[in-house]
Amino acid sequence: MSAAAIARLLGRTVAVTLVESDAIGTVGVGEATIPTIRDFNRLLGIDEEAFVGKTQGSFKLGIEFVDWLRPGHRYIHPFGTLGRDTQTIRFSQLWLKLVQEKADAAEDALGAYSASAIAARLGRFGRPEANPNHPLSTLSYAFHFDAGLYARYLRTWSEARGVGRVEGRIVAVDRGGESGFVRGVRLEDGSTISGDLFLDCSGFRSLLLGETMGEPFVDWSHWLPCDRAIALPCASAGDLLPYTRSTADAAGWRWRIPLQHRTGNGYVYSSAHLGDDEAHRRLFDTLDGAPQGEPRQLRFRAGHRRNLWSGNVIGIGLAGGFLEPLESTSIHLIQTAISRLMLLFPDKSCAGPERVEFNRQSVLEYAQIRDFLILHYKATERRDTEFWQQCAAMTLPDSLRHKIDLFRSKGRLFRFQEELFSEDSWLAVLIGQGIMPAGHDAVADTLSAAELRAQMTGLRQALHRAVEALPRHADFIARCCAAPRSAVS
Ligand SMILES: Cc1cc2nc3c(=O)[nH]c(=O)nc-3n(C[C@H](O)[C@H](O)[C@H](O)COP(=O)(O)OP(=O)(O)OC[C@H]3O[C@@H](n4cnc5c(N)ncnc54)[C@H](O)[C@@H]3O)c2cc1C
Question: Strands 164-167 and 17-20, how do they pair?
Fold first, then answer.
């Protein structure tokens, strides 16, 4: 992704050499994305339908969270916007007033006001309408794809635009005496690749940023205790669902990601609370198709390198940090690191204030996403295992505590400093995880109960009608972006 973006934006003003090792390979997971990936693909000029076909992809309208609040409960965190604001009143306040004044709020569940959530429930898919007055203008989507195929796709794309790729394992790193800057990397065959700026995309090992530059790791595992995952794909079964499913379990959660040629599955768990064999069994027993290949075990820690840019080294992807995959944010973090680098591209000295600003923005972004993830673990009624009891007892970061307190009072939400997750995302997860504000904003009372009811019923019905007219997700894919037959194994 980095090589492709640099080739696209800086063209031949910068010579890019990508070093990677087939013997080491990639982490090999990461199949669910969020809507910002579409901006990245658009930047590269990638044809969306060809891309979905070539990566065995499917469309994602959000994430269904099952058993997170309590066993048997489910809700969707949808992409896109919820309801419609009036000129003076936010939709969230209208909805709060509605449900707070009504005994039976079942038909007014938040998801009934989201085009993406309704489409997910009905197994339908279509692209958003451009006309802002159309109910489907509020829908948004991302993709599920085979990350290995996406990387291969981007490699071909980049090589065609002048990126040089070197196959080989880096065994040593040369640094300049006084500055300590990295001057070159030495490969197993004895060759050296020198450069002015090094993007460390070496994965969890963090070869340049962590090992060479010695940037310490800021550990957040006391807030995000899951530190292992087992991934095991299985044969597709049932409808091709247009959403990711996350199911809470004894010591973590399981993911289910539907692709065209298979279903991706995994169990993310805390090794302090669950053994690997038991995690494997819990994953295996819940597969809805025949397993494909051997399970893969991954170890990680939640957190980030203190500075993501040190000297002339910038950590991108897992080399910079990792927040577990609950909200599919890692590929997005790669993308924002790249765009931040493009906006702050240094000269050869790397001595300007750009590095400081890059680090400031990166750390803030990590912390904001961290808070959103913690919310899922903390705000739950689950106390059935030691893992969930520990989550319930944890002390929150002040930033999250403040956000929850503000919401609990009158449902007020604010988005700070280009935060990734919108007020609607926070609303969906706060409500989904069982936090209902005590009141609502007085401004919502400017509408009478009858006016409000008529307005909200009309909105719900219009959304439902518009979504019902969309094709089924599987039919949309078959018509527009089916994978080439030879690629389906
Ligand atoms: C369990 C799990 C689930 C995930 N799910 C999602 C998800 O749903 N959505 C999402 O957005 N993200 C997800 N992620 C994160 C996602 O997988 C990564 O962000 C993404 O794959 C990018 O990884 P990377 O390129 O940083 O590292 P890697 O994929 O590990 O790539 C590292 C590269 O560096 C090369 N390399 C390493 N050492 C050397 C060396 N010595 N010499 C030469 N080359 C070297 C390797 O060959 C490889 O090409 C998940 C991660 C985990 C652990």
Answer: parallel
- Could you give the domains of the chain? 1-79+141-365 (3.50.50.60)
Residue 434 region, left (φ>0) first, then alpha (ψ -120 to 50), else beta? left
Q: Per residue in 71-127, pLDDT tens?
A: 999 999 999 999 999 989 999 999 999 999 875 566 679 999 999 999 999 999 999
Instruction: Report strand pairing: 142-144 vs 74-78.
Output: unpaired
Distance CA 168, CA 151 (A): 17
Question: Among candidates 488, 487, 489, 483, which has minimal Cα distance to 49?
Answer: 483
The number of the ligand 1 atom at minimal distance from the alpha carbon of 29 is 17
Residue 38 structure tokens: 């579409």
Q: Whose CA is nearest to atom 17 of ligand 1?
A: 30
User: What is the dihedral sign for C-alpha 372, 74, 33, 117?
Assistant: negative
Residue 110 known to bind ligand: no
pLDDT in the model for residue 166: 96
Tell me the C-alpha to C-alpha distance, in Å, between residue 228 and each of 30, 48, 216, 266, 337: 14, 33, 21, 10, 25
Ligand 1 pocket test, pick from 33, 187, 201, 308 with the greatest ligand atom count within 8 Å of Cβ, gives 201
403 among known catalytic residues: no
DSSP 136: G
Give the residue-averaged pLDDT of 3-12: 92
Tell me the two tokens of residue 117.
């959530």
If you average pLDDT over residues 414-437, what whole number do you get?
94
For the chain, the straight-line distance linking the first and the last C-alpha, in angstroms and rounded, comes to 26
Distances (CA, A) of 437 to 428, 430, 452: 13, 10, 19
Q: What tens digit of pLDDT does each residue of 131-182 get?
A: 999 999 999 999 999 999 999 999 999 999 999 999 999 999 999 988 899 9
**Residue 463 in contact with residue 119, Cβ under 8 Å?**
no
How do residues 196-251 score in pLDDT, each as one tens digit?
A: 999 999 999 999 999 999 999 999 999 999 999 999 999 999 999 999 999 999 99
Cα of 231 to ligand 1 centre, how many Å? 14
For the chain, give the mean pLDDT: 95
Ligand 1 contact, 229 CB (< 6 A): yes
> Which ligand 1 atom sits closest to the C-alpha of 334?
19
201, 224, 371, 437 from 300: Cα distances, Å: 16, 11, 18, 35
Q: What is the pLDDT of residue 177?
A: 81
Coil/strand/helix, residue 248: strand
Tens of pLDDT, residues 290-313: 999 999 999 999 999 999 999 999
